[in-house]
Amino acid sequence: MIMERDMRDTVDAVVVGAGFAGLYALHRLRGLGLSTRVFEAGSGVGGTWFWNRYPGARCDVESLDYQYAFSPELLDEWRWSERYPRQGEILAYLEHVADRFALRPDIELNTRVSGAAFDEETSRWEVETEAGGHVSARFLIMATGCLSAARVPDLPGLDSFAGRWFHTGSWPHEEVDFTGQRVAVVGTGSSGVQSIPVIAQQADQLVVFQRTPSFSVPAVNEPLDVEAARRQHGTPMQRRARARVSIGGLPYPEHEGSALEMSDEERTRHLEERSRMGGLAMYGAFSDVMVDQDANAAVVAFFHDKIRERVDDPAVAERLLPRDYPFGTKRVCVDTGYYETFNRDNVTIVDVRESPIEEITPRGLRVGGVEHEVDAIVFATGFDAMTGAVTAVDLRGRAGASLAQKWSAGPRTYLGLAVAGFPNLFLVTGPGSPSVLSNMVVSIEQHVDWIADAIAHVRDSGAACIEATVAGEDAWVDHVDEVASSTLVHRANSWYLGANVPGKPRVFMPYMGGVGPYAQRCDEEARGGYAGFALTPTDRR
Ligand code: NA7
């Protein structure tokens, strides 16, 4: 019995997180013959789609693109019901994947990893869980998600609130019924934009507290017509092949010329066509929208017209116009009936830009000296994105160095995959990779495949460790910054830049070079014998 336990506590690989990334990592590592343990803080698999159960929660990438492509059989057998998948349907899909590939025996649920330290004597990661568990692993894979550390703003008085409050990113499992209630929603990013129309239909009164208006595109959601989708974009595999070489990990045509080369009428017609395609197709409308202020302004003007068309009261429409940052420099939202919701009698909007929320009182929220009385508060206030869930684990590399400390002036990685001083540690969709700027599933598959190949390479070459070099990491960090600086992204206070978390360094975290070119760079790294990495031979441990 003791033998068995000891053996179970020593594995080849530990994966942290059982969302899209962790599940696929487990499948691939098992395929290499590695004993692998996955730790998941939630009581079920699904990651983002386990936690984000708020009303209206839905993916802004189409179902046919937001699924794994590693298994043709899986692609063939799963049927999505809508063009954009609901949270519950994605969760059911991931549960199906966990069962179909018999992943569950290697997943420990309800287990949060608190820390992991690299032992230079043994070249192993010693992983600790919050409940006091301990596992030793040669490889450590952080599949912790980019948007998983939910952030409730530090508002005075929240403890005194007499009603219930929620965060969209950690929504209760039981149904929340707002019927007959006065509800506040704080935040108008993707989660607010999705939940506001649904909550408005249920609640007696809804007050939206808006700090920054978003750009939101109609989803044009509908029951999925597989045949029509096939005619437009080919089979799911053909869609994926195009997505893999694209900029955003999506199969739509991209960058059809400059916005400034068209007449006003042509440009409007082109943008109308993109609008009709629905959702994130808008991103690829022009080649220069993210780099040229004038091109961007033309798209902004189109959005302003659309919002004015959709909102009846001109004063309310003006409040909803995003004015002080360029289109695309904060995450563009995808909505169903968002702007029209402000035409309802039971919905009001409070601007908290100039006059922030002062405090939460037992009865509601105080803004500009006015108390807004509500029965429930929904914080759709976002996440400590990209780094929050990684640094929440006390990761210690060579000589006990702390990752959180190393990243205190901004994340430093090589290719968003590895960190100098942290051998055999891999990040799935880490900062410095396209990640949140792309279709996450495409980027996750690309990363997990690359990591699995790198691990196989280490094993086959008889090395003990693979570790990013400082020179490789420095050059990559500079490159990520250089690409971002050639665009308009620094002109917005976005979570891409850490601007939503007080005290977080202002560094543009994801890589803007595009999914296709980035994957090519990763492939070259592997083909070139991992030149930006050092492989430590076993006898030099
Ligand atoms: P986001 O996109 O970070 O949105 C959070 C929203 O909450 C945003 O409008 C914030 O305004 C607002 N916010 C945050 N703190 C406050 C305070 N203290 N007062 C008022 N308003 C506040 O998170 P989501 O969950 O909507 O979306 C995350 C991603 O999930 C999304 O990008 C998609 O990729 C899917 P701000 O803009 O910071 O002024």
Overview of this structure, please?
- Strands 1, 2, 3, 4, 5, 6, 17 and 18 form an 8-stranded mixed β-sheet that branches.
- The protein has 17 helices and 20 strands.
- The chain starts with a helix and ends with a strand.
- Helix 15 (440-461) packs parallel to helix 17 (515-527).
- The chain has helices spanning 2-8, 20-31, 48-51, 72-77, 87-100, 190-202, 226-233, 236-244, 264-277, 293-310, 314-320, 338-341, 388-391, 403-406, 440-461, 470-485, 515-527, and strands at 10-16, 36-39, 107-108, 113-119, 124-129, 134-142, 164-167, 182-186, 205-210, 216-218, 333-335, 347-351, 357-360, 364-367, 370-373, 376-379, 394-396, 425-427, 463-468, 533-537.
- It has 2 domains: 2-149 and 385-540, FAD/NAD(P)-binding domain (3-Layer(bba) Sandwich); 158-379, no CATH class.
- It binds ligand NA7.
- The site of ligand NA7 has 22 residues, from helix 6.
